[in-house]
Amino acid sequence: MCLAASAIAAVVVLSGCAAQDPLAQQAAEGSNKNYIAGDGSVTEYAVAERGEPVQIEGTLYNGETVSSSAWPGEVTVLNFWYAACAPCREEAPDLVALHEEYQSEDVQFYGVNIRDSKENAEAFERNFGIPYPSFNDSDGGVLLAMTSHVPPQAVPTTLVLDKEGRVSARILGLADKGTLSALIDSALAE
């Protein structure tokens, strides 16, 4: 009897903790979402409001260390994602197409994978033909560095950095191909 009461108490305590975690709450509801969805909102930042250039350093899945200090002079697109995120999967073909479209211009793309093992991330990239590299950000270093500039707040989130390395635009949620293209063009034109 005492053991049963202890088990019930543990379930009550754990379910109370889960209700505070949005992902756990989604799992308990059975929504199968398992991500914090963005609302698709787009924010473009005026040049005077952009602040300092982004300072990030991280390791790509191929083991290469990359620093934002090497990015000035190019527009950079950062896409925060993970493999089980449905909107990430939906936007992947558009990101591939935009990467190919802007390949001959001064635009570079990086994924920032916030959750997956190397094997899962590489399987996603193979499946969708992702040609650009991704940061292994399971430790949250890139995400944390971005919070002082523009917090991503949802997965997926796509950021466009201007030629000086400052955040010029943010899309919370699924990135519309036409909108992202216009944001890249705007940053290139500066």
TrEMBL record:
Gene3D superfamilies: Glutaredoxin. CDD domains: TlpA_like_family (cd02966). The lineage of its organism: Bacteria, Bacillati, Actinomycetota, Actinomycetes, Micrococcales. This is TlpA disulfide reductase family protein. InterPro entries: AhpC/TSA (IPR000866), Thioredoxin-like_sf (IPR036249), Thioredoxin_domain (IPR013766), Thioredoxin_ResA/DsbE_sf (IPR050553). Its main location: other. Pfam families: AhpC-TSA. Residues 1-18 form the signal peptide. The keyword Transmembrane helix does not apply. The keyword Transmembrane helix does not apply. SUPFAM superfamilies: Thioredoxin-like.
